[in-house]
Amino acid sequence: MGSYNKMVSYQEIYDLLRKEKYSEQLQQLPDNFLKEVSIYLNEKKSIVDKDQGSLFSDTQKITRKQFENAVSLVNELLAVRGKKVLNLSFTAAQTGVSKRDTETLLNHEKELFENVVRKLEENKAAVTRTLEGEGEQEKDLKNVLVRFKQSVPKFLDLEGKEIGPFNSGDVANIPKEITQILLEEGKVSKIEEED
Fold first, then answer.
1. Same domain (yes/no): 25, 108
2. Mean pLDDT on 169-188
């Protein structure tokens, strides 16, 4: 949409919201849209604040209402676009996305898009590893299921987190390194060895 030199108007914000709501695709916003909206809102707010003492000023009442409505319109526009960005992120993580699909994103929307796609891809990879059995093997290597033979007061694990206290007969999933120490001291037995 070329350069955008004139200030945005209330009617333009309204029209942009209407177009965004009734289209499945993200709409192209004017260049520097958020900056222009910020200038517009700040100018309206300064008029409202300046005429605060004028109780019967019709101009002040109209400006205040227009300011409040404009804030609502902008928030709704950004919310509608936010939902579309999330949907686009999901599609991109599943099937890939072309550069053309992201051309209409504002800077903060691009950042959201990239972060969400990355997290969705990481999540997909983790689920795939779990389905292929890798996740369970890793978990098995890190922890051991044990039964306590005697009471043990609470203690710190290797990461400094409190574990316990445990009573005789309690069953717990304990990090492998700590299990080894407790086994040597005769305080626990591995559950699998009991069967």
1. yes
2. 87
